[in-house]
Amino acid sequence: MRSTSFLAALAVLPLAMAAAKAHAVALDVPAQRLDAALTDFAEQADVRLLYDAGLTRGSGVVPALKGDYSVVDGLQRLLAGSGLTFQTGDDGTFTLVPLPEQGVLDLGSITISGTAEGRVDLPAEYAGGEAARGARIGVLGNQDMQDVPFAFSSYTSELIEKRQAQTLADVLASDPGVRQSFGFGNFSQVFVVRGFQLFSDDIAFNGLYGILPRQIISTESVERVEVFKGANAFVNGVSPSGSGVGGAINVVSKRAEDTPTRSATLDYASDSRVGGHLDLGQRFGEDNRFGVRVNLAQREGETAVDDEHSRFSLATLGLDYRGDDLRLSADVGYQKQRVNEGRSVVYLTTTGPTSTLNGKTPSVPDSDHNYAQPWSWSQLEDTYGMFSAEYDLSPSWTAYLSAGGKYTRENGVYASNYVYGENGDARIGRLYSPLDQETLSAVTGLRGELMSGPVSHRINLAANGIWQEKRNAFESTAAGSRGFGNLYEGQPVAEPPATSVSGDIHDPDTVAKVQNRSLAVSDTLGFLDDRVLLTLGLRRQSIGADAWSAASGARTASYQESITTPAYGLVIKPTEYLSLYANRVESLQQGPTAPVAALNNGEMFAPYRSKQTEVGAKLDWGTFGGSLSLFRIEQPQGVLGGDGYYRVDAEQRNRGVELSVFGEPLDGLRLLSGATWTKAELRGTAGGRDDGNQAVGVPLFQFNLGADWDVPGLPGVSLNGLLLRTGGQFVDSANEYSIPAWTRVDLGARYRTHLDGRALTLNAMLENVADENYWASANGGYLTQGAPRTLKVSATVDF
């Protein structure tokens, strides 16, 4: 059998090599690690080079390759002495494989250089496997980190599994530029990027807004989490809720890989939360063109917070087709989560005759203490789906279409603590707010490349649309009207009856509709062999929003505005390792309506245009990289003037510096670290009262130190750790109330082995090792407490 395989390979190989030798190409690949050299080679030779990233791990520096070579000759020179060889496919792709015994050539699992293993739609992983070297940059599509004038991070399934991440917040704890809090009165995850809120409603799924579950996003079916840093109205369009002034997040779903996926995971988290996850993937048909990926998960039990109980269920199905010119994919999913007696956020009552806080923020309760009421609960249920298609009109032009929708059913009885005493005395509020939400979303466009003399062009055209309808009702009890509690004693009160009802809580009526549409066009011009890249773009946005009173059904708002947002970006690559960039871009939000207290009440204002300027540098040494950026974002804000008129005259100006490092600088040592410094200054406030103050909920600094280390002499064993340090934050615009800086340390270990020929991975992670009591965030003007010490263990077996 081996000799037959060898003879067949010898018969085909000369024909393939002859085709590849048809012309020579000019190569200038510097001396560097093999994996980085292969990336440069594939780009310069304009070939598709496929290989498993593990084949080049630990390789040394290869000599420089400069001159005119055929593809085959050049590749042979790079691989000399590496223990690798290659095969050529019918479509001209080159596949790297280990040199077989006795000269046997065997086909193996592959990855495309510039793409991830088994995924032609994803940029390749960076050295170390925790981050990717590229991401989807909205209308610009998948881009390499060195080629775009923007800052971004892209986290892989390797990091998700290593961190035992169960939600998006667990993944983004590793990002030094992102921090997390809860939503107003509920358990939705809110992210703070460059000092501005990003609601979970505004997180994209495979590039499409409005599809993912609304409040908490699980990770069992997630392949990548991509974080775009900065204003993004041009690249992504206006999000449904209009948040994300400082950044955007895109979640990429899992797909079937060339190697079948059959894994089962059992997990446990303190105090008694137990769960399981089944991940099944298979490709079939000619050339593995069809793929199916199924993920099922169930988890239930008491969390590390006393008496807090959660239950979670997930089922997702991913389908895809990979043709020569046509690529199709579809995702459908169902997610349901229930939290009983969940520890909610804390509000401060700083004014009024009963308040005795006097500028003192209440001290933090014990880390596992629960001040929720026993009758409080929240249930979130989402059903969603989307479809995507790409068709290559020619080797240089691709048309694409994505469309999808989501139905959300949300219920909950929420108990809120309004603390008015330094000793923790609080009024207890109650809210029952059933919500039904339906969303439809679509994007279509065209991407292509062409040359005009010595100048290259990457052209993008896109049209986006999102339509959303909310049906909502409210049943509430004013804080303190029926119950008083204490933050530290956790006094239970009887569930109070409703004192106010708005709408039919059994069959809510429509209270809001959103209709956002946009058209975008861009051209990235390449000069000097694409060492200088100039991106110019425009997006014409139409923002529409209507609102109705839940109580009376009367229309309360009708907003319709259109605006054009430009984008300018420049990339200069003076060396193969260094990329310098600058951009000037904007974010958009629906403009405000003057409040009732204003003399011009009811007046609608144009959309907020938050303007960003940024400069930065990115370094790529093949196995170790980093970036440094300096940014300024100016967000307009409305203010009621002394003359009684409401105007958009105020501003929050965030100026900051971001630093990140990532990769595998030494064999077996992986780093994912960074720091952010942000000065968020208020300007033009009412009467100048708060001018110069730091904005609410924005820490002056935050940094992460993350590392993963393969223990020498213990095959399969690795240790990892993450240190998070976050500066103090102000709770109010007057800067009278604040929370102190905090530090959290997580430590973990992983063991990979085989049991009866089956891969087995054992994971353990201890979060908040020191069991620190800390207020994690003052974002939104309320307090979110950090989670207590939590032990997570899991076992994953492939079968």
Present the secondary structure layout.
Blueprint: H1 2-20, E1 24-29, E2 32-33, H2 34-45, E3 49-50, E4 61-62, E5 65-70, H3 71-79, E6 84-88, E7 94-98, E8 134-136, E9 142-144, E10 151-156, H4 157-162, H5 168-172, E11 178-182, E12 189-193, E13 196-199, E14 204-205, E15 222-229, H6 233-236, E16 247-253, E17 261-269, E18 273-284, E19 290-302, E20 309-322, E21 326-340, E22 346-348, E23 377-394, E24 397-419, E25 425-432, E26 435-452, E27 455-472, E28 474-477, E29 484-486, E30 500-502, E31 509-527, E32 532-548, E33 555-572, E34 578-589, E35 608-620, E36 624-640, E37 646-666, E38 669-683, E39 701-710, E40 717-726, E41 729-730, E42 738-739, E43 742-755, E44 758-767, E45 775-777, E46 784-785, E47 790-798
Parallel strand pairs: 3-7, 14-16, 22-24
Antiparallel strand pairs: 1-5, 2-4, 6-7, 8-9, 10-15, 11-12, 12-13, 15-16, 17-18, 17-47, 18-19, 19-20, 20-21, 21-23, 23-24, 24-25, 24-26, 25-28, 25-29, 26-27, 27-31, 28-30, 31-32, 32-33, 33-34, 34-35, 35-36, 36-37, 37-38, 38-39, 39-40, 40-43, 41-42, 43-44, 44-47, 45-46
